[in-house]
Design goal:
The complex is a heterodimer of chains A (157) and B (428). Chain A is α+β, with helices and mostly antiparallel strands. Chain A is 43% helix and 16% strand. Classes of the chains: A alpha+beta (157), B alpha/beta (428). At the A-B interface, loops of A face helix 13 of B.
Amino acid sequence: MDMATMYQEVILDHYRNPEGKGLRDPFGAQVSHVNPTCGDEITLRVQLDDGDDPVVVDVSYDNQGCSISQASASILYDEVVGRPVSEAFEILDSFVELMHSKGQAEPDEDKLGDLTAFVGVAQYPARVKCALLAWMALRDAVEQIQGPEGSPMREKV
Amino acid sequence: MGQLDVAAIRSDFPILSRTVRNEKPLVYLDSGATSQKPTQVLDAERKFLERSNAAVHRGAHQLAEEATDAYEAARSAIAGFVGAEARDLVFTKNATEAINLVSYSFLNATLLAARSDSVDPELDRFVLAEGDEIVVTEMEHHANLIPWQELCAKTGAELKWIGLTDEGRLDLSDLDSIITARTRMVSFTHQSNLLGTINPVAPIVQRARQVGAMVLLDACQSVPHMPVDVVALDVDFMAWSGHKMLGPMGIGCLWGRRELLVDMPPFISGGSMIKTVSMTETTFAEPPQRFEAGVPMVSQAVGLHAAVDYLNELGMTAVHDHEVALTRSALDQLEKIPGLEIIGPRDLVDRGSAISFTVEGIHPHDLGQVLDNAGVAVRVGHHCAWPTCRRYEVPATTRATFYVYNNENDVTALVEAIRTAQQFFGTV
């Protein structure tokens, strides 16, 4: 595969100019996740409002790692902030599915937005964790606020 | 001893003629993680399995006899490779298990002592008390760090370590305050898997002897790459792996000083490691059998025997010289790349072929990906030496390692692929 398929311009753009980076107040939960195989790290904060299907008011984060993990966190911010948790988790589930497709899945662009660009990354099993790091942190943080029973049961990755 | 005939060597390694990632020739620069295997090793294993396969040290039939002979011949050859005697060499699953075998001897002796009124004098030297100290270094592979952390957590001993200089070498300036009268074990790497540094063994052994501490040498990155004589090094234990020296995965080695092995309680227990057994009590076999419970990895031992024959044929001095020449060339060319920083010694004094580096503006994972796309296989990440990365304030590095089958073309391919990555990510 040629490198441009994996490192699509949208990924490189988010890597060079990350959206929403930096830790902010207020927040309902803060989590820290690492990718133990490579040392990529993220600290992520989530703030929800009080609705029945609470809206993600803010996601702030501080991270270091490869372009894939950095771009994924930046896109997470873009896609998730302002959405209800239910929609955010639908995106998350679709993204998890895409990343485990070994590059065979046809990404749902309406749902995934810029995350569609990761379809090439999914061909490389070693990079799947990089792409999912921020998203696993998001799920963890939301579950800390809501409790695991507050969200539908999800398969762990 | 002459130079290596690398073209002839390469023809012994079938994997080197395969291609990867769209017909790119494989440039294998990850021997520090695991080496490739020559046909001589593969043939030896296959021949054993086709002709003599049987469980060793039991059975009355011819195959059992042949298998036992093959296993013990391997022990002799592999021990001889490091200047040792067969009876002092224990086969383990890998080097990690070899180090755990020693750390668990301390734990088991400490547990046994706590259960009895009088400490068996044979066990006494392995019994730890609160305030005892274990010393490692800041450049250890996790395999030679975590077993000692665990041992300390379970016994109340304290873990101390020798720090590193900015150049990537051990800082021995305050050795006397780190290794003290309370130090019971000093366990350190002969050659850093991340930095490439070859550590001075003599001054550390000398200090350990002054205070009566034992010494374990992690030789995973030295035994495959340079002449090593364990007797001359005067350590008490030495651990290394088979798969990094052209041998199969699934076999590691622990050499131990005989009087210590004789006193050590067993690590893993079960079949083959016993002298007598009743429903209430067992006495244990002499070393090395005491430490080889269960049916061992015979075909791997046979394969490793073939690997040391292969390396002996090349000559370990020639192997080391070859790697030094490649390292010199690689360091020269890598240092000319703008934004590239070597993490580890930049000179060739006491230095092996592991070269870790960072490239400004490109995370190691991304660099590794572009290199892989060019067919260049390197290791990226913290190399199971996370504290060493922290010491040099890098989250991860890219690491190239060289072995007998690498040549100047491989160095060129590495350098070109790094430059390609810089162009791709627009950092130059």
